[in-house]
Fold MTA2 protein.
Amino acid sequence: PGESDNRNQQKMEMKVWDPDNPLTDRQIDQFLVVARAVGTFARALDCSSSIRQPSLHMSAAAASRDITLFHAMDTLQRNGYDLARAMATLVPQGGP
C-alpha cells in the first residue's frame, strides 16, 4: 500500500527533544519557571518593549507564551539537558 520512501530520514529530521533525557519532570518545570522569570525581567528592563507592553502583568503574560516555553525547552536540549549550562545561556553576556 503506497509508495516506498527511500529518503534518508537522518538527513530530513532534526531531533529537538529527547523524552528519555536525564531530567525529572520537576527539574524541567523549574527550568521553565526560571525561563519565564528571566523573560519577564528582561521585558521589564527593555525600554523599547515597555511601549508595546506597558505593564509588568503584560510582560509576564508575554513570557508565558508557547514560544517562550519552546525556546526554553530548545535551550535545554541544545545544552545536553545540563541545567547549569542551560541557565547560563538564558542570560547573555552583558545582561538580559
Observations:
- The chain has six helices and no strands.
- Residues 20 and 81 are 10 Å apart (CA to CA).
